[in-house]
Design a protein that fits this description.
There is one protein chain. The strands form two sheets. Strands 1-9-8-7-4-5-6 form a seven-stranded mixed β-sheet, with helices on both faces. It has a four-stranded antiparallel β-sheet with strand order 2-3-11-10. With 200 residues, the chain is of the alpha/beta class. The protein has three helices and eleven strands; from the N terminus they run E-E-E-H-E-H-E-E-E-H-E-E-E-E. The radius of gyration is 17 Å and the shape is globular. Helix 2 links the parallel strand 4 and strand 5. The protein is 20% helix and 34% strand. The structure holds inosinic acid. Inosinic acid binds next to strand 5, strand 7, helix 3 and strand 10.
Length: 200
């Protein structure tokens, strides 16, 4: 079962701009514990089987690195790059391929590793693409799930945390390419009064 996120106040973070407010939503300690549990769930489903991780660049990189280490056993990985978001916080609704996988996934047990499931359009695009390539198994692990934002009919097999509809950064997630290196997942708000600029 995914764990519910809780909140606490953050100090000024590295790279933080004056007009941006950051609040810790999920601490690194909680992320570490949850990633360990997710790895155990995945290994229970795939005991003694090589697992091929497919990371969706760039947001999944830290999650994939930690998950790969917790999984143990035979693990390989590859990356794909697609864009569904323009710069900033607004989705274009379109998915475009920037970089395809390096190796074939045919006959492999594939685990797609995503940072966050928002509208689900990216994942829907990826699953359709990968299914055509005939993997032995095709599963999905996401760290964060903004369930209330879903448009596409997709679900992850392994979910870290269900979070509210707020724009988050850290642990791989960015705002204009910044904040990916924060160890915690934080809510970012803009404006002098911390007013959110994203609408549902
Ligand atoms: P979807 O196609 O709408 O599900 O969007 C998935 C992608 O949008 C994720 O892989 C992220 O790159 C980006 N995204 C969605 N919500 C956030 C957020 O709160 N912070 C940072 N990136 C986000």
């Amino acid at each position: 079962m995914p764990t519910k996120a809780t909140k606490r106040t953050a100090r000024v973070k590295p790279g933080q701009r004056a007009e941006e407010t950051l609040r810790v939503l999920i601490s690194h300690k909680r992320i570490r514990e949850r990633v360990r549990q997710m790895a155990q769930e995945i290994r229970r489903d795939f005991p003694n089987e090589p697992v091929h991780l497919v990371g969706v660049l760039k947001g999944s990189v830290l999650f994939l690195a930690d998950l790969a280490r917790e999984l143990g056993g035979e693990v390989s990985f590859d990356f794909i790059s697609v864009s569904s978001y323009g710069k900033g916080m607004d989705s274009t609704g379109e998915v475009k391929m920037n970089k395809d996988l390096d190796v074939s996934i045919e006959g492999r047990s594939v685990l797609v590793v995503e940072d966050i499931l928002d509208t689900g359009l990216t994942l829907k695009y990826l699953l359709r693409l990968f299914e055509e390539r005939k993997p032995k198994h095709l599963r999905v692990a996401v760290l964060l799930d903004k369930a209330e934002r879903r448009i596409a009919d997709v679900k992850a097999d392994y979910t870290g945390f269900v979070i509210p509809n707020e724009f988050v950064v850290g642990y791989g997630l960015d705002y204009d390419e910044r904040y990916r290196n924060l160890p915690d997942v934080c809510v970012v708000r803009l404006g002098p009064h911390g007013k959110m600029k994203i609408e549902a």
